[in-house]
Amino acid sequence: MKILVLSDTHGLLDNAYKITDKIKTEIYAIIHLGDYDRDADTLRFKYPDLKVFSVAGNCDYSDYDNTERIINLGGVKIFMTHGHTYHVNSGVMRLAYAAMEKEADIALYGHTHSAFISREDGILIMNPGSISSPRGTNICSYGILDIEDGFADAKIMGIYDNGIREMKVEE
Q1: Could you tell me which residues come within 8 angstroms of residue 57 by beta carbon, excluding any fewer than 6 positions away?
Q2: Is residue 60 over pLDDT 90?
Q3: pLDDT of 64-79, one tens digit each?
Q4: Contact indicator for 53, 47 with CB cutoff of 8 Å
Q5: Which fold, 2-167?
């Protein structure tokens, strides 16, 4: 099962639409990691055949009670958060510890607008970057989770001028 992972759309959904339209028959769900949570509502409306899971971010002022969520997909436990409450600008260790406490297999976050993938003590940690306003690069990005038989793999895809391809991100 493939899952599209988005973060930090900030009301700019053109790239999200282009990617989702291109791969919607290949994916089971969309995960939106905040900023703006209302963009997740727009995706739910535009793609009623896809499940859309979301959390609020630091710019989602009316939805502070929805800053993290745990979902189970394909035998994998996924911890979702925007990341600001775990101070991810200073590193992912707080997030990794929270994921361990929650017995999650995957921890997904956004907030930094910078793509990141790592494994910490067996937990897959991923930030898909921003599909609309990246930082530290001019390449918009999104994540793809591939879950099969209780195992998850992930990759970051970059939207380049000459097409879409997997990004190599530093761990």
Answers
A1: 7, 8, 33, 34, 35, 36, 37, 67, 82, 84, 110, 111
A2: no
A3: 667 899 999 999 999 9
A4: no
A5: Purple Acid Phosphatase; chain A, domain 2 (3.60.21)
